Amino acid sequence: MQNGFIKVKALSVPLRLNDVTANAEQIKNAVFQAEQEGVALLVTQELSLTGATVGDMAAHTALLAKAESELLALAKHTKETSVLFFVGLPIKAGAAVYNVAAGVFGGKILGFIPKRNHTSFGVRAGEKQFAGGISAPEKVLFGGEEIPMGNLVFTAKNMPAFSVTAAVGQDAFFMNAPVVNAFTGGANILAILNAEEEGVHKQARLTTALTYLTQTYKVCAVYAEAGAGESVSDGVFGGRTAVYENGEVLAQSQPFDSGVSVTETDTTALSFGKNFISTEKPIQVFFTARVRRVALSRQFAKLPFLPKGGEEQAYTDYVLTLQAQALAKRVAFTHAKRMVLGLSGGLDSTLALIVCAKAADILGLSRKSVLCVTMPCFGTTGRTYRNAVALAQGVGAELKEISVKEAVKGHLKDIGHPETQADVTYENAQARERTQVLMDLANREGGLVVGTGDLSELALGWATYNGDHMSNYAVNVSIPKTLVRLLVKTYALCETDEVRARLFDVLDTPVSPELLPVTGKENEQKTEDIVGPYELHDFFLHAFMKKGYSPETLLRVAEYAFQGEYDKATIKRWLTVFLRRFFSQQFKRSCLPEGVSVGTLSVSPRGFLTLPGDGFSICLEEKE
Predict the structure, then answer these.
(1) Neighbours of 158 (CB within 10 A)
(2) Which residue in 36, 229, 328, 412 has a CA-CA distance of 20 to 30 Å to 105?
(3) What is the C-alpha to C-alpha distance for residues 157 and 419, in angstroms, rounded to an integer?
(4) What residues of the chain score a pLDDT lower than 70?
């Protein structure tokens, strides 16, 4: 440190799940490189020794033992370096397992800072494998030695301004977090070890949180999060890193990029700023407010899943990148040779085709590795069929046509169902036959079936159970219909004239499952005539799940937001449909295939939405 400046580095370690030895080797090499670069502080991500998405293995005896031995070896191997570094791992303390940040310097493990607040959202919500952290330091037996664990501050005796604490995950952003006491106790630097999946609002949230945190407490935050090597079961991890100081960003890496941020922090300025922070506890003052009805005057976004302020191109490029990166990683992990896709010429399968093509590009594969299958049946129109064929050819995918008419007719005959009785059995038989074709083709081709269903359909349960409801990996599972339209539209603007024309024709085609016989030139089975406008359902979904609105509040806010477009009776009708279907169709969501989450909203049963499959509902009971 010279003139109060020290060099800090945040690193997202590319790891291998459960392979603690390989991960320790990566961290050891990173410490040696940091030593050569003159770095005084190195921060790696949450659970960087094991991987953050190991699930229940985090508490397994074998993994805990391996993590302990490798951390001890890592400390020994880096004894001659002068880098204070933080590693994330699970440790056993008494009868509980904790998710901790380990501070290591000069061959010694200085202490453990445990995660106190479990992740409350996303892929890792709940973290049932771990106990909550402890607030007061105590001794933990680790490798035969007693190591302090708790709310610790690591301070250099010869350079008191080089004073560091750490936080794991959301602990850094809780107002009552132990790090607040650490700041007022003199810590100038906060090492943040995190593991949060990517999402469309991630950058904005992270920028706001780190800006507020560092400006409020006059500290430097060195932030590293999980990235390459983590599972993409229900999300994809971007490996973001950043260094913020007193409200300003000094360095940061983009998701899926280098995973490295390195710069200098000014501990002199940080120490000076700390003089103005009060350490007093707040005193609560109570009063009774008057309850009255408030007239609405604020703005409510009618399309809450879409970007604001003319950021459409960058926003949609990012979403497509998340989808394609996740699919590419799943294809690589499973060693799949093909991506098998049912291409109908509709919006959802068109978006899935775009994602498959981009995933093939990421993997360096020929786009012929994408096998598109069009499966004409009773309700297939010439318009959607021509668009499906042209789009497959336009992106360079392989196209196979398999009519399922005779197979469905045979099945209906086998179960004694009249071919002329076009009911739910008639419709679902087609959807399930198509899924069987795709699954069997994937088996034969050594591939995986890419699901096409979107978030809006899943919220409404608008899918055939074990039909289009099922796949090997679902790329649109967290994309609402309104965003599907925007993604296809913006992608079309960058395509050739022929492909662009086809994509815009897809956008102009009414959404339909095309499962009923065509009586005229066009299919009369229009989804929005049956379940309601998707722009309303997406509005309901966002407000219900993200804001916790009651049905009565939903109705009032929707009426206000859509005034002049839908009257109250229409909104009430479709809100009733939304609530009834949302709860009655949970059984379909309870067994969804894995799929990437690209935003802050998902209906996956793995950490995002937990509901019983029966006996639960919320009804609209408007009070005038």
Answers:
(1) 7
(2) 229
(3) 85
(4) 1-3, 120-126, 133-137, 175-178, 273-295, 518-524, 615-617, 621-624
Number of other CB atoms surrounding residue 440 within 10 Å: 12
Residue 38 DSSP label: T
| Structure confidence at residue 120 (pLDDT) | 60
The token pair that represents 248 in the structure block: 């300003």
Q: Return the bridge partners of 139, or none.
A: 148
From residue 233, alpha-carbon distances to 108, 215, 607 in Å are 36, 36, 11
CA 62 to each of CA 15, 20, 48, 161, 354: distance values in angstroms, whole numbers, following the listed order: 18, 11, 17, 40, 42
Distance CA 340, CA 449 (A): 5
Alpha helices in 46-201, H assignment, sequence order: 61-77, 178-184
Torsion of CA 212, 202, 100, 135, to 10 degrees: 40
Contact 327, 450 (CB under 8 A): yes
Q: Which of 446, 453, 287 is nearest to 371 (CA)?
A: 446
- One-letter amino acid for residue 556 of the chain: R
Contact 571, 209 (CB under 8 A): no
- Please state, in angstroms and rounded to a whole number, the distance separating the CA atoms of residues 192 and 453: 36
User: CB neighbours (10 Å) of residue 205?
Assistant: 13
State the pLDDT at residue 170: 86
Residues 106 and 154: their CA atoms lie apart, in Å, by 13
β-partners of residue 447 are: 338
- Distance, in Å, from the CA atom of 177 to the CA atom of 393, rounded to the nearest integer, reads 55
pLDDT tens, position by position, 309-324: 777 889 999 999 999 9
Within 8 A by CB and 6+ apart from 175, the residues are: none
Alpha helices, DSSP H, located in 98-174 = none
